[in-house]
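hi! just following up on the protien thing from before. the input was this:
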Amino acid sequence: MPIKEVQSQLQSIEALVNRIENVADPALKATAKELVQSLMELHGAGIERMLEIVRQDATSGSSIIEALVRDDHVRSLLLIYGLHPDSLETRVTQALEKTRPYLKSHGGNVNLVGVDDSGTVTLRLEGNCHGCPSSSATLKLAVEEAIYEAAPDVTAILVQGDIQEVPATTLGFVPLSQLGFIVIEVGARGGSPQRDKWYDSYGYGNLRDYGLADKKVAAERLAAMHPYIDLSRVGMWGHSGGGFMTAAALMQYPDFYKAGWSESGNHDNNVYNRDWSEKYHGVREEMQKDGTEKFIYEIDKNSDLAKNLKGHLMLTTGDMDENVSMVNTMHLANALIKADKRFELQIYPGMRHPYMPIVSYVDMARGDFFAHWLLGSYDTRADILELQNQKQATPSKKFKE
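and the predicted 3d structure came back as:
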C-alpha cells in the first residue's frame, strides 16, 4: 500500500478515535474505548509474536525483518505498536544521513544534538546557501520532511543555528560596482525567505517568466527615477536558479538585455531535482480514459528559447557539480549551437556547485565579461595581474593562499 494511503488511513482512525472521545453517553464512551484498547492489545501481541517467530530463523530472519521495516504499511504498524526494531534516535540519524548530501550540495550541513524522552529532536544546521534555488527555509523543510517520514513518532523538532544565505556582497556585487556598474537585486512578486502562500500563488506553474517580467519593470522604473541609469546597457548575472533566470532573460527580452553571465543554471528542470522544480512549479494530475492517473510535469526549458538570443551570453558550470548537473548547461549549449548562435562557455575543472575555491578568478572573469560587452573596455592579456598582485610577498606559515 502506498505511503499516502497508509497516512490517510491513520488519519481516518485518529478521527474516529476523536469522535469516540466526544461521545456524550459516558457508558457508551467507556465501552467503545475498551473495545478499541482490546483490539489494539490483541493485534499488537499478534504482531509481536510474529516478529519473535521470524527472529528465530537464524538464516533469513534478520533479512525478513529488514524487508518488513522497508514496507511503508508494515513500518507504520510497527511504529503504532512500539515494535519497530530501530530506536527513535537511530531512525532520525538515518534520515539525516539521507539529507546530508543534498544539504552539502547547497553549502550546508546538519548535525543531531539529541533526542529526549518526550520524542523531541534537536538539530544544529550549519553552513550557507550560495545563491541556489533552494533557500535556507527550503533546506530546513527538507530535513524536517525526511525526519517525519522516517520517524512519524517524533513529537517536535527544534533547530539550533541556521543555514545562512550568503550576502549579496560576497557574490560578486561589490566587484561589479567597483567597475562602475549600477548593481541591483530584484525579488519577484511573492518572493519570501519562507516560500509562503504568496510565492506559491505567483510561481506555481510559472517559475520562470513572471519573475523575468518583474526584473525588467524594476530596472525601467529605476531608470525613470534616475536619469543616469542607461537602459541601453543592461546586463544580468546569477548562479544556479539565477543562472537559469539570466539565460532566460537574454532570450525572453533579447532587445532589453545586452549581456548575461549564467553560472551553473538549472536550464532544463526535467533533469533537475524534485526538491525545487517539481515542488514549486507543480505536477499536474490527469485522469486517463482507462481510469488510471497520469502525472504531467511541464516546466519551461531555456533550450526552447535558444532561437531568440541576440545579446552576449556566457555559460559557466563546474564539471563535478553534484547539485545542478553540468548536463543542464550542455543541453542549453547544444540548443544554441543548433540555432547557429554565438555564445561563450567556461567549464571549471573539479568544481562542484559553489565555486568557492576559485571565487576570485570567477569574479575577475565576470568583471572582464561585462566590462567588454557593456563598457567597451577589456584586457586581453593572458595574465590576470589583479589576482597576482593579491598574493603575499612572503608566504605566511599560518595562512596559506
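DSSP finds 14 helices and ten strands in the chain.
The CA atoms of residues 106 and 129 lie 5 Å apart.
cheers
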